[in-house]
Amino acid sequence: MNPMDCMQRAIELAQLGLYSTSPNPRVGCVIVNQGGIVGEGWHVRAGQAHAEVHALRQAGAAAAGATAYVTLEPCCHFGSTPPCVDALIEAGVKQVVIAMVDPNPQVAGQGVRRLRAAGISVAFGLLEQQARQLNRGFIKRMVTGLPLVRVKMGISLDGRTAMHNGESQWITGPAARAETQRLRAQSSAVITGADTVLRDQARLTIRKAELPLEESQACLAMERPPLRVLIDSQRRVPRDAAFFTAGPALVATTSTSLADPGAGQELLMFDAVDGQVPLEELLKALAKRGANEVLIEAGSRLVAAFARLNLVDEYIFHIAPKFLGSSAKPALAWPIDKLGDAMKLEFTSVRPLGEDICVIARPA
């Protein structure tokens, strides 16, 4: 096998951890000896063996003198598991090919230096962009202290998210709703606002029967559901709301009310900024908890608040072939007077999604 194919296989393995590794990065590893794969593995979840260890176990004695292809620089520190560089050195591999250096300050090139000091040849940069794409959230958290933030909205062709009376179920079709389930499962946390919970009785859970995934991937997703986060500055949502009865959640608030938040609910208090939860501080707090990717499913006011602060990395629009009319609610509650002040986006993907289309855009 040529090096490109070997690293491509490692990336495919890493993708298997899309719904389970948070807060850790998604990593795949392939061990090659005498032109063939003798071991492969991927990191399943935090606290368990890393990809290199799984691959080395499968390779056994055949790892001696082999080349390891890894999508992320092997760790060199003790965390929940021992350093992977030690395992590679002890196995006797002769070369390690790394797609990208680990941005984690605890690693950040130290793994490469340890391997080279042990006489192991190290190369990196092969399929780096694919590897970075797989861990955009982890990279951003390590570099900036903030998670990757996605906004997902179901809208009509004329840019409306609900009728004037709040009715919105359902604007988009079954395929779009299944994709929303997948996006939630991929995320470390899902954020919504009090208006959405009160209006739609939103729960923001993931439901196995609705996940468009293979059985093994769906099971992994259900074992690591995203943290559900409610922004409720004034504690307007009652304890018996569907959002709370659906399971544990985090409530971000500025209210000093001493009311019991209810079983399984956690309060995260902030000093109010203009009477509201400071959104960047909330994202920083989530990042400190290990959130790599955050999905926002909220109403037009909260989405606009995140957008105006330039806190959104990616917008995902599920667009239905419907007109809801001028009295329906707009996607953003953000009055803009001049065309020159409009937020500029660039499309990164446009594809069919059942009876709808999915458009992904990023700030230009």
Automatic annotation (TrEMBL):
Pathway(s) this gene product operates in, as recorded in its UniProt entry: Cofactor biosynthesis; riboflavin biosynthesis; 5-amino-6-(D-ribitylamino)uracil from GTP: step 2/4; Cofactor biosynthesis; riboflavin biosynthesis; 5-amino-6-(D-ribitylamino)uracil from GTP: step 3/4
Catalytic residues of the enzyme: E52
Entry keyword Metal-binding: yes
GO molecular function, one term: 5-amino-6-(5-phosphoribosylamino)uracil reductase activity
Pfam families named among the record's database cross-references: dCMP_cyt_deam_1 (PF00383), RibD_C (PF01872)
Gene3D superfamilies documented for this protein: Cytidine Deaminase, domain 2, Dihydrofolate Reductase, subunit A
An individual GO BP term: riboflavin biosynthetic process
Positions that bind NADP(+): G154, W170, T196, D200, S233, G299, S300, R301, L302, V303, A304, A305
Catalytic activity of the protein: 2,5-diamino-6-hydroxy-4-(5-phosphoribosylamino)-pyrimidine + H2O + H(+) = 5-amino-6-(5-phospho-D-ribosylamino)uracil + NH4(+); 5-amino-6-(5-phospho-D-ribitylamino)uracil + NADP(+) = 5-amino-6-(5-phospho-D-ribosylamino)uracil + NADPH + H(+)
Sites where the protein binds substrate: S168, R184, L204, R207, E297
CDD domains in UniProt: Riboflavin_deaminase-reductase
Domain CMP/dCMP-type deaminase: from-to ranges: 1-123
Cofactor binding description: Binds 1 zinc ion.
Record protein name field: Riboflavin biosynthesis protein RibD
Organism in which the protein naturally occurs: Pseudomonas fluorescens
Lineage: Bacteria, Pseudomonadati, Pseudomonadota, Gammaproteobacteria, Pseudomonadales
